[in-house]
Amino acid sequence: MLKSQNAFTVIELIFVIVTLGILSAIALPKFTATKNLADIAKGRSDVMAIRSSILSERQSQLIKGVNTYIPKLSDNNTILFTGDGAGRKLLIYGITEGTSDGKWSANGNTYKKYTFKVNGANIPFDYNSTTGIFSCDANQDGTQEQKYCYQMTK
What we know:
Helices cover about 40% and strands about 15% of the residues. The protein is of the alpha+beta class.
């Protein structure tokens, strides 16, 4: 009598495992790069929304006869960019504070200095309440933080 053998050989299993290992070694760095690009895109979107809301608030104040920019962008460390807490509003829902990649955090209690994190790098942003400018130190050829800032604000 002949027995039917329906199994993989050890060589076939090793070949499949090695192939999967090679594919994952190629895919993981690409995934990391994609995550960084997504964080930069999120940061760029946030920066544009913040800048737009600063200008919108300025327009509202000018209509009321007030000739100043909003004095600070947040009034607490939990939800950022909602306004100064004294009736001047920015983003309706704000941005939840965090310290991981793709998150914003406030530096100090003046609510004029913020940090956005990309790939472990902290990109510092400053708000100038005299000019209404929300910016970071952008340099395409500078430090990693400056390069990320450039990508987020170009």
